[in-house]
Structure formats: C-alpha cells, structure tokens
Amino acid sequence: MKSISNALMATLLASGATLLVAQPALAKKEEKPAAGAPALKLSNEVRGPAAQAQTALAAKDVATATPLVAAVEAAAKTDDEKYIAAALRLNVEAIRMDSGGTADALVAPLDALIANPRTPQADKARYVYQRGIIAANKKDNAGAAAFFEQARQLGNNDPNLPLQIVKLKMDGGDTAGGLAELTKMVDAQTAAGQKPSEDIYRYAIAKTNQKKMNAETMAWIRRYLAAYPTMKNWRDMVVFWGIQPQSVVTLDKQQKIDLYRLLRLGKSLADQYDYEIYAQWATDVGLPWESKTILTEGKAAGKVPADSANATGLLTAANRFISNEGSLSSLETKAKAAANGKLAAGTADAYLGSDQYAKAVELYRVALQKGGVDADTVNTRLGIALARSGDKEGAKAAFQAVKTPPRSDIAAWWIDFLDHPPVG
Q1: What is this structure's pTM?
Q2: How many angstroms separate the CA atoms of 131 and 143, rounded?
Q3: Which residues form the signal peptide (predicted)?
Q4: Is 227 helix (H, G, I), strand (E, B) or coil?
Q5: pLDDT digits (tens, 9 = 90+) for 166-193
Q6: Torsion, CA 133, CA 138, CA 168, CA 125, rounded to 10
Q7: What are the CA-CA distances from residue 188 to residues 164, 185, 335 (Å)?
Q8: 343, 371 Cβ separation under 8 angstroms
C-alpha cells in the first residue's frame, strides 16, 4: 500500500486533533466547552499549562508547547486530564511531522486517545483510522486490517477508508475479498447518487487482469464503460482486452477485425496505426474491399498521410484483388445457388467491408439457412451489419445467438456498445 506522506498525515491528524478542547474551557473552569467537545474537569495543575500549550500550538510554536505538554502529562491523573494530555501530545507530534518527524511518535498519543473513555466516538473513529494508515505504511497488514475494520464499525466515514480496506486485501493476496469490498464500495457510492472515479474502475481492471481473472476483468470493463463511455475509454478498453500484445484474451485476426469494426463505428480509430493495421489484417484474411474502405476513410479523415508507403501498397494490393475477383453481384448469384453457406458468408463479408449493409444482412441469413458455416462467426457479422444499418434490436438478437467464447465475448462488447455508445 502506498505510504501516506508525513505532511499529509500531520494535516489529517491536526484536522481532528488541533484545539480539541476550546481554550476558554481550559482557561475558565466555569465556562462550557465548545459544541461537540467533552466537558472536562481539570485540576489547576493541568488547566494552566494546558491552556498555555494550546495557545502555543495554535501558533505552531512547538518549542514553547513541548515543556508545557510534558507538565500536563506529568500532572494528569483522571481520564479527563489524560485525555487532554494525549490530545495535546498528538498535536505536538503532528506539527513536528511537518519538519521531519516520524509517524511512530503518533502511536502513543493515538493509542491513549483510542483507549480513553472521554474521547468522543467520532474522534475515536478518526484516530483508529490513522492508526490503520500507520500500520499499513509499516507493512503490518494484519494490524492495519484490524484498525480499518474497527474504524468502520465506529462509524468512520472517511471516503478513503473503503479503498484502504480494498488495497489492504488486494496487496495481501486476498483478491476475491478485495473485489468484494470494492464492489460494495462502488455499489454504495452509486446508490448514494455519487459517481465512482475512473481510477477505481481502472484499479479493479488492472488487479483482476494481473490475476488472470478474465471474467472479472471483463465485468469491471463493462461497468467502467457504462459509467464512462468516452471514445478514448472505449478504444483503450477494446485494445487492452483483445487487440494489443498480451491482451486479456488471445484472438485471431478475424476476431480482432470484428473489434476494429466496433471501434470504427464508435469513431474511436485513433491514428494512422489503427487504420493501417486494420487494413493489413483485412487484407491478410481476404477482405480487400474492407481494406480499401478503411484506408480511403483514413485518408479522408486526415489520419492516414497521403504519402504513406504502407497505405499506398495496401491500397494497390486491394484494388488488384478486387479487380481479379470480379463483381460482388456475380458472387452473390453463385452464393445463393451454392450447396452450402460458405460462399454466401464470404460474399456477405465483402458487402460488409464495402459498407453495403443490406446486402450483407441478406447473405449472412442465406449462409445461416444453408449451413456449413461457423454460426457464431456469421451471427457476429450479421449483428454488425444490422448495427451498421441502424437495426439495434435486430443486431442484439443476432449477437445474443453467439454462444461460444471468445466470439460470445465479442458479441457482448457489441451489445454493450449499442447500450452505451461512445460519447465525447
């Protein structure tokens, strides 16, 4: 767990400890304490130096405050007096942390305040939480876990507490427990009308991926994109899941092309590399129509430079192949007369790649009716063609017919895309 800095620790502590007992309540025995502060009964031996110490601490004059606090500690006999002694000592050590002091010096006054029956519960919950941070920074995971859980039971509502518990479990190897806590935290924030930060989702995605928990990784990706469906996030997550080297799942070029088709529809193809690798893979699997379409589109968008040698070579190859292949209409006629659906599926792919979606839909359905094809692949492509033609419900039905991973996962990506399309 990342250590909390001395300066931040001092600020956190001082925010709860500084002037815990209002100065007038110490200076004049008959005055009432400030709202929320305990009504303390102090002897004259404690009251005088305590009031002077508070004045010095308000000015961050540690040199003056230190002997006064020592005098209070020496004279303290009752719980009230020990409470003010520990509170003042905590203030001294918190201020010292700004000039190089260590968190170890905070342990004794924190423990004294936690144990003292005069400490208000809200303050006690805060002090227990800070003890958890100190323990976590010292790599005492068991101690930190106990303190954080105690802080939660005492009603600590620090927004960082749930995440501290999550990180502690994760770093301790309890990934399942950490994920359960994280889910609880995200669900609670969502129910309260709050939007969990993007970092929370990315943390869960990274941790589950490290443990090769593919189903959990995908689940957190889906939650992330539902909450933050930007074009950048869509591209980042699609590439992370199935396109980049060492992605969450291993896909072949045909399957990766179906993810690139999703990015294209979402206007999330980022740069020259995206357009050219997409076109290269389309060429590799025998889809020159799509290669040509993508490169032409990339050039028009200014993403593919006009002088790109790679793009020029791919376009030349695509045009040559298309010329040799003949018209798609002649292939369509042959496909409809064929004994099985293989030619129909291949011709539908060509229509899909050349943005002729109605023709693609027709021939994908012919392919499914004739058989002899991989139904999951054809249904995936049918869903894509329907999505591109604007038939959202028809597309979902086609995607839902895809049953076997990883194609069923690709279909799930498309369904999520239809429900939460990229924005911004």
Answers
A1: 0.75
A2: 9
A3: 1-27
A4: helix
A5: 888 888 888 999 999 999 999 999 999 9
A6: -20
A7: 16, 5, 55
A8: no
